[in-house]
Write a sequence for this structure.
């Protein structure tokens, strides 16, 4: 779709590509999904110069952007199901090319297409911890394309911008954008768009400590979504309502709501949301004294986040595991995990989601409890063992 044209059929492109591979002018990576081909750097530079000399560089970049538009449309659906990890890997492999294409879209005025590409990849931005970068692109393209974009696309962009802000702790911005999305959706009289925007408004309110508003918005979102047959938004609303019930001490209600969300996401093979709700269920199980169940849920959570490669939420799940060891009265194991978590955060350049009160509280509880339950020497020894261990080695004894 990028290289073919009136004088070159798609089949001819494939033949030429294989010919270049045979001559060692192009490197083929047949193990990736799908197969990837890379020009040697000197040839890439020469080819770019020739395209410019021939006046075809801009058309090539425009075709590349259109290719991303088609891929993002496909990826948006695929990243919600069982193939999402393969799609995360695919976009990760192409991330530098994606950035080049989006930067060109901004310079050349292709703002609406850039907006569509960025929106289609929203789950990638969140799951691979690129929320700030995705949010910057989304804000830029929305600002430039707002007058020409259909109102429904504007509402979607505002809602997903709110979600991206939420993913990296810009909570006040998230609530502002979600409220703006609600206003646009209201003018469209779209229950579907209104349900999504209201759900984000409720989640942002939860993170800002406004529990009453959070419950009201999430219940409204659930009802609106169910009225139009949307199953995904109610599952997400139940996830957050379950978390609120847990925070309020209503463990039976929390368990029921989270179990319902868990069943839906498992059925749909949405691994990212499954990991999130599994981590919440583990926290409820700890508080209910169901330590074995919590351990099983955390094993699933840690495995999923490891496969997804969501470093931030993996670090948070490991903190919950340390909190479980603390609840079972195993200070050496809790402190060992704490050492490993601190080392993992430093080495991977990530952080735990400290903007979430419950995550921050867990981390502080483990950090302050350890020294009171052990001698200073024993504490240092356990912490240093965890610091020196790799992730799998440190986690295995606790799971």
């Amino acid at each position: 779709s990028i290289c073919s044209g009136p004088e070159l059929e798609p089949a001819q492109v494939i033949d030429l590509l294989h010919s270049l591979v045979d001559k060692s002018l192009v490197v083929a990576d047949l193990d990736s999904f799908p197969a990837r081909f890379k020009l040697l750097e000197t040839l890439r530079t020469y080819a770019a110069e020739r395209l410019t000399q021939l006046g075809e560089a801009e058309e090539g970049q425009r075709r590349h952007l259109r290719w991303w538009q088609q891929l993002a449309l496909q990826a948006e659906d695929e990243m919600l199901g069982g193939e999402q990890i393969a799609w995360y890997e695919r976009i990760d492999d192409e991330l530098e090319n994606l950035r080049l294409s989006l930067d060109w879209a901004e310079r050349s005025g292709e703002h609406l297409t850039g907006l569509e590409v960025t929106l289609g990849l929203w789950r990638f931005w969140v799951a691979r911890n690129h929320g700030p970068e995705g949010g910057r692109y989304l804000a830029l393209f929305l600002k430039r394309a707002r007058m020409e974009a259909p109102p429904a696309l504007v509402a979607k962009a505002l809602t997903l911008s709110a979600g991206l802000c939420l993913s990296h702790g810009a909570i006040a911005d998230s609530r502002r954008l979600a409220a703006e999305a609600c206003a646009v959706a209201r003018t469209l009289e779209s229950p579907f768009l209104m349900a999504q925007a209201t759900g984000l408004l409720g989640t942002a309110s939860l993170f800002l400590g406004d529990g009453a508003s959070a419950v009201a918005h999430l219940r409204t979102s659930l009802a609106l979504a169910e009225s139009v047959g949307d199953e995904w938004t109610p599952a997400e609303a139940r996830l957050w309502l379950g978390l609120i019930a847990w925070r309020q001490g209503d463990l039976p209600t929390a368990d029921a709501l989270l179990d319902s969300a868990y069943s839906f996401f498992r059925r749909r093979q949405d691994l990212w949301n499954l990991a999130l709700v599994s981590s919440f269920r583990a926290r409820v199980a700890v508080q209910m004294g169901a330590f074995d169940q919590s351990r099983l849920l955390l094993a699933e959570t840690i495995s999923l986040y490891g496969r997804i490669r969501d470093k931030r939420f993996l670090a948070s799940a490991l903190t919950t595991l340390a909190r479980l060891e603390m609840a079972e009265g195993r200070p050496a194991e809790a402190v060992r995990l704490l050492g490993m978590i601190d080392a993992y955060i430093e080495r991977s350049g990530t952080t735990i989601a400290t903007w979430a009160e419950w995550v921050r509280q867990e981390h502080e509880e483990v950090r302050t409890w350890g020294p009171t339950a052990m001698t200073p020497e024993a504490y240092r020894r356990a912490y240093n063992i965890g610091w020196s261990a790799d992730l799998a080695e440190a986690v295995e004894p606790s799971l």
